[in-house]
Amino acid sequence: MHHIDVAVLIGRFQPFHQGHASLLTLALSNADKVIVVLGSAFCARSVRNPFTWQERAAMISASLSEADQARVSFIPVRDYYDDLRWANAVQNKLAQAIAGRGDAALQIALIGYVKDASSYYLQHFPQWQWIEAERVVATDATQIRQHLFAAEDIPATLDAVAAFLPLSVLRFIREWVLTPDYAGLRQEHWQLQKYQDVWKAAPYPPVFCTVDAVVKVADHILLVQRGGFPGKGLWALPGGFLDQQELLLQGAIRELIEETNLAVSEPELEKALVDVRVFDHPARSQRGRTITHAHFFDLPSTTLPGIVAADDAARAAWFPVSALCAMEEQFFDDHFHILDQFLQLISAGN
């Protein structure tokens, strides 16, 4: 038995399964208080992140006794697609959660196990004691999601995964598979599967190159609503895949015009280019390893140029910069975070 004041459990828990439950049990047996950090919070539902952080917190709480529920609290943390920023956010939110408990002298431990290379994030907290657990189940959340979205016989699939899920989680999922959210994500799963099947014969996993356009006019940003999967109905930056024979800037302007018919000439756009940044986090896109080059155009006009959605965009619209934070959970992939990099949308400490 370790003498620990606070045990920390970090994960996405998409969904919370018996392996996670064993980690939580270990944390509760070693500490007075347990804080569960729920990653991938404040984002749109996707095949990779089908459950909101509130749903995951409710699933986990429902798996505990009333006494243990009182000892467990939850911290939602967004995906910043920046490891250092993410680790700082976890530490800052934890400090806020334990404030007033004499935190300078508190013994804090991180509970977990190293599943594979994806567990590298556990190395970001060397200041905490590390307690490694044994892996107790043969499956993981990725495989469970794969079964759920690929299911042809949903009741039989639920029966097959039941042994890997706490009863509270199984009950939640039995109801959740009846919702429109599940139906939409199943369609997205199959579209992604078709997309990835095309590249199965490649000698090595492909790396895709895309371009995106951040267009600012009169404190407004131009966005498009995606017309197809993945991310159907979500808001995104105008952009797409780079053609073989074009430069990055040419591709960004081409995609911008194709999707929005922005009433601004190419020379005007080139003159208004103020920044270009690369976004290359391996998990930023579900389609595969995708590196994008975001081009920031800051046009001096005081009126919003005309736009008409076309190509694969269902809609095109101007949004005030002040409205973007409230839309965070409606953005495709990491596009909200691309905007944050240029516009500093997320305030310090959040």
UniProtKB/TrEMBL annotation:
Q: Does the keyword Transferase apply?
A: yes
An example of a GO molecular function for this protein is: nucleotidyltransferase activity
Task: Show where the Nudix hydrolase domain sits.
Answer: 203-342
Cofactor annotation? Mg(2+)
Q: Keywords in UniProt for this one?
A: Hydrolase, Nucleotidyltransferase, Transferase
InterPro entries the record matches: Cyt_trans-like (IPR004821), NUDIX_hydrolase-like_dom_sf (IPR015797), NUDIX_hydrolase_CS (IPR020084), NUDIX_hydrolase_dom (IPR000086), Rossmann-like_a/b/a_fold (IPR014729)
PROSITE patterns, A to Z: NUDIX, NUDIX_BOX
**Listed name of the protein:** Bifunctional nicotinamide-nucleotide adenylyltransferase/Nudix hydroxylase
Ranked from the top, the taxonomy reads: Bacteria, Pseudomonadati, Pseudomonadota, Betaproteobacteria, Burkholderiales
